[in-house]
Design a protein that fits this description.
The complex is a heterodimer.
Chain A: H1 2-18, E1 21-24, E2 34-38, H2 45-52, H3 55-58, E3 61-66, H4 67-70, H5 74-83, E4 87-89, H6 95-99, H7 103-109, H8 116-123, H9 148-157, H10 194-201, E5 205-208, H11 226-233, E6 238-245, H12 247-250, E7 264-267, H13 279-292
Parallel strand pairs in A: 1-7, 2-5, 2-6, 3-4, 3-5
Antiparallel strand pairs in A: 6-7
Chain B: H1 2-7, H2 10-41, H3 47-75, H4 78-98, H5 107-126, H6 130-133, H7 136-151, H8 158-181, H9 194-219, H10 234-250, H11 259-287, H12 305-327
The chains are: A alpha/beta, B mainly alpha.
Chain lengths: ~300, ~325
């Protein structure tokens, strides 16, 4: 009851400040199972896209929230679980966790190892904040891509020091912190994608931000491969690109009071993984689909 | 009829005005409804005609909304009317800012504009502090906004950014706040009827804009400033002003003015309004958009609001100050 009231209040505030317009180009708002993937510029993205969805879809669509940002105070925790019905994903703590189960499949494919140092350096840019794009977990299911490169991406996204140079995949490091039992119910291990897989298995739609971190410029960064992983695991789920416009102006980093500026969320035509399509080309195509919505 | 209307108390007269407006709306809406109904069952006209009808129905919806809003504002008193115009100012400024590029450093100034300047201005109106409310924005805010900007430590495009914000506040907040301020003007023998003055201003200005638009559509004259507006030319502008002022003069019985005075204030309001509309068109052209609001898609109902109120934003202060000066109201 309280959650519902808060939801309405929040919706009212968001509409008053931003308009929270949904523009459906390319697909209608429809109650089918979907993965919405959008650009990421601000903490408020989660709230924006939640507010832009029509009432009926809002109840079956779960946004992704990084546990270390959205669950660090009791109020944020309450609002994300009760009002947004969000799926928590681990960010920092899961790096070694994803490393462990990674071992065997990685060796099976074994493409040339990319430079880990470069990726690790990239990690320092990332601020400790909401990173709804979870580390994509190679171990989620046997079908997913588990190349060392993919692993590096996981690593690069995390606020952890780079693992020892010795092939981290071989280390049987135990997970330092277990995700909440409820969140990982379906997964075999402490896999960061597990909560998402769980949500999708139970028939919910989800909202993810494949850039992983908030961008500083207008251009979205390269997409991380979690999207590809989920898309190949759930081929029947419709992938809808979305462009969230103007949100960074409402509340720039470091500000507390939002400013009223009209924002919109544009939903584009669904895309799908083509037969035999590789991970990188698909992710680039997905990113292009999101960027293309900027100018419609 | 006229005798009967004059015998009514001011409140009854305003109520009668609303009755007439709502009566007309009911008649038009019913006609539109039956037309649509007939077309559904037995289409006679082509697609273009259907689209036109749909367009008119939408316009009718907006008119209903506006009429109800005005009625609620009047029925609940001056305070509610002031709050109503404060909301309009808020939405208009929101649209204006959305389409004027701002930088990170403007954030605090924007907060100041939306959450401090706007409420204070309308509070000054509601409490009838005329001396302060006419100078609050041009004098005090004029300094406060650039100070907030300067403290944000971002000098790039400083003048441009601040000029835009000042301008937006002048048009959207200062201009709009003069409409409810009309409610507080006091003319001898005209107590309780100030709602007519607001109606008079809105009606006259909208008529001039509408007539001008229709005439320029019909006659297809050469536009005077084609880079700014494809429809503006002096002939249709003149006709628009003349027709609207004449209508205004005929409506002088609802105002405290005599026929000639009503004609004069109508001319002033219409010139200010239509020129303001043209100015806003130039602004829109510069931003490369046909309409205010987000890419022409209206879902929230607040979009394109500035398109509808821009003429009023410019006309209201001039109307207000000219009659306050001349009539010493």
């Amino acid at each position: 009851m309280l959650a519902k009231l808060t939801g309405w209040l929040l919706l009212g505030i968001v509409r008053l400040l931003t308009g929270a317009q949904a523009r459906w180009y390319g697909c209608p708002p429809k109650a089918e199972q979907r993965i919405y993937f959008a650009n990421h510029q601000s903490h408020a993205d989660l709230v924006m896209i939640w507010a832009a969805l029509p009432e009926e879809l809002r109840s079956i669509t779960r946004p992704i929230a990084a546990r270390d940002y959205w669950a660090n105070t009791p109020f944020k925790r309450w609002i994300t679980t009760e009002v947004f019905n969000a799926v928590y994903v681990e960010r920092a703590a899961t790096a070694p966790a994803s490393a462990a189960p990674h071992a065997k499949p990685a060796e099976a494919e074994a493409p040339p190892l990319p430079t880990r140092a470069a990726v690790a350096a990239q990690a320092e840019r990332i601020e400790p904040s909401m990173e709804p794009l979870l580390p994509m977990a190679p171990a989620a299911a046997p079908i997913v891509d588990v190349t060392p490169e993919a692993f590096d991406e996981v690593q690069g996204r995390l606020d952890l020091p780079a693992p020892p140079p010795a092939a981290p995949a071989a280390e049987p490091t135990p997970p330092p912190r277990e995700p909440e039992p409820a969140a990982v119910a379906a997964a075999s291990g402490p896999d960061p994608l597990a909560p998402l897989v769980e949500a999708l298995r139970s028939g919910d739609s989800i909202i993810i931000f494949p850039e992983g971190t908030r961008g500083h410029t207008g251009e979205p960064q390269k997409f991380k491969s979690g999207l590809y992983t989920l898309a190949t695991m759930f081929p029947e789920v419709v992938l809808v690109p979305a462009w969230i416009d103007n949100v960074q102006r409402v509340m720039p980093k470091g500000e507390i009071v939002p400013v009223p500026i009209l924002c919109s969320v544009t939903f584009g035509a669904p895309i799908r993984v083509d037969e035999g399509e590789e991970r990188r080309p698909f992710l680039d195509r997905a990113r292009a689909a999101v960027i293309a919505l900027r100018d419609v | 009829m006229n005798q009967f209307l004059r015998s009514l108390t001011p409140t009854e007269q305003v109520a009668a005005l609303f009755l007439i407006v709502f009566g007309l709306l009911v008649v038009v809406s019913t006609t539109a409804f039956f037309l649509t109904f007939r077309e559904r069952r037995n289409p006679v006209h082509d697609a273009a005609w259907q689209a036109e009808l749909a367009h008119y129905r939408k316009l009718l919806g907006t008119t209903w909304f506006m009429a109800v809003v005005f009625w609620v504002g009047w029925a609940l008193g001056e305070t509610v009317a002031t709050v109503l115009f404060a909301l309009i100012a808020f939405f208009a400024l929101r649209e204006f800012i959305t389409l004027s590029p701002t930088r990170r450093g403007d954030h605090r100034s924007l907060i100041l504009a939306f959450f401090v300047v706007l409420p204070i201005q309308f509070w000054l109106v509601a409490t009838a502090r005329f001396d302060l409310f006419t100078v609050f924005i041009p004098v005090y805010v004029f300094l406060a906004i650039p100070v907030a900007s300067a403290l944000a430590d971002d000098p790039s495009h400083f003048l441009e950014r601040n000029a835009k914000l000042q301008w937006g506040i002048m048009v959207c907040v200062y201009g709009t706040s003069h409409v409810p301020a009309l409610l507080l003007l006091s003319f001898p023998g005209y107590e309780g009827k100030s709602a007519f003055l607001v109606f008079f201003l809105v009606f006259v200005v909208q008529t001039s804009v509408l007539v001008q638009h229709v005439i320029s559509r019909r006659t297809q004259r050469k536009p005077f400033a084609p880079n700014v507006s494809r429809s503006f030319n002096w002939t249709s502008w003149g006709i628009g002003i003349a027709v609207a002022s004449l209508v205004g003069a005929l409506f002088s019985f609802i105002t405290p003015f005599k026929f000639g005075q009503a004609l004069a204030v109508s001319v002033i309001a219409c010139i200010a309004g239509s020129m303001g509309h043209l100015v806003m068109k130039a602004l829109k052209r510069d931003r490369g958009i046909p309409n205010w609001g987000k890419k022409g898609v209206g879902v929230t109902g607040a979009n394109g609001l500035l398109d509808r109120v821009d003429a009023l934003c410019f006309a209201a202060p001039i109307f207000f100050h000219s009659i306050r000066w001349y009539f010493n109201a």
